[in-house]
């Protein structure tokens, strides 16, 4: 389980994620859920580890054509086709937060995609409700994620945080 959260400020974007992965009722370990690409394509995901790995492989050869909503949607439709070719999976299970060309997007498993505009925030994963409440109350990404990790047994430290300065 996991929590990934982002806040879009006027001059910067901050994204963060916890690092706990829980398998079954008895095993937990640390794993990164936030990925930083050389081309300023930053993303985090919550859900299946196998889908996360498939998306990493997919990104080795494909990126969205642009940061327009239609191109982000087409990118994830292509990802579903890629997963289908690889192992017969016909739909996404994970939710994603991605930053591309200084724009922030929420991508849900049902292909509901929306841009998180300046001043906005969003969270995905098991702790999304607590995280969004923290944002609503004015907390920053680190404070919000620390609170979620203290309140939810399926989220854990350490945090990975990334700040992107806007041009």
CATH architecture: 4-Layer Sandwich
| CATH superfamily (homologous) name | Aminohydrolase, N-terminal nucleophile (Ntn) domain
How is the main sheet built? 5 strands, antiparallel
Please count the beta strands (DSSP E, at least 2 residues each): 11
What's the tally of helices?
4
| Oligomerization status of the protein chains | single chain
* Elements, N to C (H/E): EEEEEEHHEEEEHHE
- Quick one: overall form? globular
The largest beta-sheet arranges its strands as: 5-6-7-8-9
Q: Uncertain spans, ≥5 residues at pLDDT below 50?
A: none
| Beta-strand proportion | 25-35%
CATH class: Alpha Beta
The Cα radius of gyration reads 15 Å
Write down the domain tally.
Answer: 1
Helix fraction, binned, reads: 25-40%
Structural class: alpha+beta
Mean pLDDT: 92
């Amino acid at each position: 389980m996991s929590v990934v959260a982002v806040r879009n400020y006027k001059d910067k974007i901050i994204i963060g994620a916890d690092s706990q992965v829980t398998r079954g009722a008895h095993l937990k370990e640390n794993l990164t859920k936030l990925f930083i690409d050389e081309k300023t394509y930053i993303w985090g995901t919550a859900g299946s580890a196998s889908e996360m790995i498939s998306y990493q492989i997919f990104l080795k050869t494909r990126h969205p054509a642009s940061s327009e909503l239609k191109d982000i949607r087409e990118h994830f439709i292509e990802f579903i086709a890629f997963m289908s070719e690889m192992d017969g999976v016909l739909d996404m299970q994970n939710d994603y937060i991605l930053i591309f060309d200084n724009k922030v997007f929420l991508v849900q498993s049902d292909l509901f995609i929306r841009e998180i505009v300046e001043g906005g925030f969003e969270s995905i994963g098991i702790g999304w409700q607590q995280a969004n409440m923290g944002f609503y109350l004015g907390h920053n990404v680190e404070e919000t994620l620390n609170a979620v990790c203290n309140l939810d047994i399926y989220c854990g430290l350490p945090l990975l945080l990334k700040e992107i300065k806007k041009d």
